[in-house]
What we know:
This protein has 371 residues and is α+β, with helices and mostly antiparallel strands. It contains twelve helices and eight strands. It has three domains: 7-114, Butyryl-Coa Dehydrogenase, subunit A, domain 1, CATH 1.10.540.10; 119-228, Butyryl-CoA Dehydrogenase, subunit A, domain 2 (Beta Barrel); 230-370, Butyryl-CoA Dehydrogenase, subunit A, domain 3, CATH 1.20.140.10. Helix 1 (7-24) packs parallel to helix 4 (65-79) and helix 5 packs antiparallel against helix 7 (229-265). Residues 89, 121-124, 129-130, 154-156, 199, 202, 207, 350, 353-357, 359-360, 363 line the site of flavin-adenine dinucleotide.
Amino acid sequence: MNYCISQREEYVKATAQKIAREKIIPQRELLDEKKDFPYEIIKELADTGMFRLFIPKAYGGDGGGDTELCIIVEEIGKACAAVATTYAASALAATPIILFGSENQKMKYLSKIAQGSLASFCLTEPSAGSDAGGIQTRATKENDSYIINGAKQWITNGGEAEVYVVFAATNPSRGARGLSAFIVEKETPGISFGKIEDKLGIRASCTREVIFENCKIPAENLIGKEGIGFIVAMRTFDHTRPGVGALAVGIAQSALDELIAYAKQIKAPLSLFEQIAELYTKVEAARALVYSTARYLDSGAKDVSVYSSMSKLFPSDVAMEVTSKVIELFGIFGCRRKYAVEKIMRDAKITQIYEGTNEIQKLIIANTLAK
Ligand SMILES: Cc1cc2nc3c(=O)[nH]c(=O)nc-3n(C[C@H](O)[C@H](O)[C@H](O)COP(=O)(O)OP(=O)(O)OC[C@H]3O[C@@H](n4cnc5c(N)ncnc54)[C@H](O)[C@@H]3O)c2cc1C
């Protein structure tokens, strides 16, 4: 089924497919092996206007919303989940500014991201992964500035991004209610970058520590007001979790495409295609959930958290099930490094973890059901 209903969405999809075919697929194996950051591909995405799509029109973007973001992430994700993650992480960091930023912040930072500057979302810390209330990073107000001290870990685009959205405690005694969100520019004295993680999957994306030592930023870089940081993060995830679902759908689809081509080549019996049929149906169901949620978000709906969680939970579990089964059905070939499917399975695992683990998605859905 085709979920693109406008001509523009068709154009976006075709552009992403062309970049995937011509620029990403030929390089993905090497990028993964060497965990090389995909500079050239990101530049191509910027040059073709892909970073403009998720930015509102008033700030130099095309105002494509969540649906177009999902279309691009799915198509790029079919080719390489690391590239899709690098791109989607910028949308993740742009979203708090879109939703809660001041007019000045939007003008200054969204227009930069629309032109292709990478952005980074800095929430996770050693003692604050699933539980954002455990954040130890502090932001202390001094006259017209905030001084940030602390360290974030496992931050996508760390060191590569120009713009950092950072969550820190302004009132530590209030836990999650004492958090605030700030914009920090890469060149600010006091921000530095630690080790690059050597990861299981999405290896060509850059995941790194981001460290703040007496990092002084203007008070005007506070997003919204003090104490709403947790809400900023949660509302952001409402918009971006379907994007993780779209990536998972792209990952699962590419594994199935590899298997179908192989099954045809070896003239596999119909019984193998029957097994593929079941997996194919699950991927289509996941895709339907992702795009109906994205359209619901784009319609301006407010009661979206539970659907956003579902549209991350189900597709990422499907992606893990499908990629693991595809390796099994490929037999020994599935275990060889030179076949794409082993990379695809490693990438799939990550989608169950970031932007809130799937246990946390179940918790969000369960809390709503129990109310
Ligand atoms: C490749 C990659 C890129 C990432 N990029 C970013 C980024 O750009 N920015 C960022 O801020 N973070 C990023 N992260 C971090 C990611 O969001 C966290 O890993 C994730 O939120 C889980 O946190 P944790 O790893 O600390 O696990 P923990 O919170 O320590 O959880 C460990 C386990 O316990 C379970 N658990 C925890 N609490 C509960 C509960 N209440 N109920 C049930 N189960 C529970 C979890 O589901 C999980 O299985 C990235 C992670 C990865 C792997």
